[in-house]
């Protein structure tokens, strides 16, 4: 058994109403017929001690609320164990899905008659909880409860197929199936202080919930490794994921899992200290609203500390050589001071390209030459050759080549539009740090807020562009949105705003000289790279034949994120020298991995390449197996299937086209050594050898 030293910065406290909650919840479990000698015996139930758990995780709530929340946790653990005994052990996928679909009916005002303990318990709890909460809270709680139940099928599917997730997939899926977002909603209920609706979906509040969730789940994975992996045959455990992905022993995998847990807790703390105060100011939260958010933060901290204490005491888990507190490693290692010590502008030299796994061939668009000429004229007309870029850089970047690979079947108009969006997004990504750098986050936020003025839903301009950034967006918006219906315009505008706001996050990291936490980086990188914008354009062009539930389904969500991560990490490898040596960046996936693992550059690039390979192989598997099975199970019609197939083909084109462009563009070669030449470039290796051979 491995030994782990946990980072636990908050003390655990015990609710004085614990004994009442223990007695109440045992009666309730008997009434719901959960103590049945099949799933749980009375001895099992007493030993797991959910009254103790909730007394630790909610130390300040009144007696009645402690009774209620303890019943909720009895229900959720019974659900997990009942699903294991009934469907996971028998590998009954069809029966498991039917069971979950019916269970969802009990989160409504008119549920059917319950037929088993899980249905009976959910019906009772729903009626005792929901009437006291706002519609915003209720909507969020329905979503996280549905995720918790439905993603049990993900665990069952992995057991059935013998698959162990890659690390990125695991963190995302575990967040849903593990139930901690559900716990975070209950923290609001028990605290009697809901997060104000206008900030409930903001980045800081989202990150608080996600870091809390990941820390809870990673801690549980460490405590439950023996029970889940060695006894029950589970494959959904981060320690096992690390063993398989890194090819290491169990102790090393446990240490990596614990380092990630520590990093997530540091991210929680950083968000509270650096992101909540600006959030309060930006949204004008009143004192009682600010107090509600801070009570939520306190509740999440109490849960972390109390949950650890319960894991140490409950008979549900095996305790090894576990200890908790704050050690020098916790403060100086991953997520701590190590993330604040990146030296600016180090001389990293030319980075060799790994042998990327790419099973798809990039296509060619016959309108490439026309798009290239139109692109050069448009970029000059918008004023992009203003010093942030030069006319020479615009030419060698060759965004038309990228667009031609991404969409080889686009018409000339579509290809030009796509090229212009790539150009604007990349220019804006360079413009923000060049103009605001490490100096003025307030001005950067003001500029970002102005960008929405140039995306009017009614297509009537409301402001005059003051710089090339605004001029380019205003022109692109009118040319793009005029072909959309207003709901589509709103969705697309939100996607653009999501991308542009992510650049403020990057600037904040640079100003703190803080290398991001790995999970936060991966999830924000999809936004900063603009991949969500590219994908949303594809969906809006093709989405009318596809039900919204299909777009939100796990297979499509999974393969889309896998494609995003492949391209984002690939870009980080190609741009490492440009960003780290020349621009003083801290927002780069290779640097994030190098910092987290405390390793050298070649090893960090190797890890990034391995993550890319695991993501594109996941893409292949989902496209070949999971997605067709989903479409069959839900009897999706042929028109929608054809649209989905076209969307998946588009993601293949996107990954292969972006990789080819990175190999051919002049954007990632040392600018001072780049000389004008004929259109078209060879591979990165050949090009760098030709340009730098004599100087090496």
Description:
- The protein is mostly helical.
- The chain has 32 helices and two strands.
- The protein has a two-stranded parallel ribbon with strand order 1-2.
- Helix 1 (18-31) crosses helix 4.
- The relative contact order is 0.08.
SSE layout and pairing:
Layout: E1 3-7, H1 18-31, H2 42-48, H3 50-57, H4 63-88, H5 93-103, H6 117-129, H7 135-150, H8 152-161, H9 167-177, H10 180-191, H11 203-231, H12 238-246, H13 250-274, H14 276-282, H15 287-313, E2 321-325, H16 328-332, H17 368-382, H18 391-397, H19 399-406, H20 412-436, H21 441-451, H22 468-481, H23 486-512, H24 518-528, H25 531-542, H26 548-551, H27 554-574, H28 576-582, H29 589-597, H30 601-633, H31 638-664, H32 684-692
Parallel strand pairs: 1-2
Helix pairs in contact: 1-3, 1-4, 3-4, 3-15, 4-6, 4-8, 7-10, 10-11, 10-15, 11-13, 11-15, 12-13, 17-19, 17-20, 19-20, 19-31, 20-22, 20-23, 21-23, 23-24, 23-25, 25-31, 27-30, 27-31, 29-30
Question: What is the SS-derived class?
Answer: mainly alpha
The portion of residues forming beta strands comes to: under 5%
First and last CA, distance:
51 Å
- Low-pLDDT ranges: 671-696
Main sheet: strand order = 1-2
Number of strands: 2
Principal-axis shape equals globular
Q: From the alpha-carbon coordinates, what is the Rg to the nearest angstrom?
A: 26 Å
Largest sheet: 2 strands, parallel
- Count of helical stretches: 32
Mean of residue pLDDT values: 90
* Helical content band: 55-70%
Brief digest:
The chain is mainly alpha-helical. It has 32 helices and two strands. It is globular and about 75 Å long.
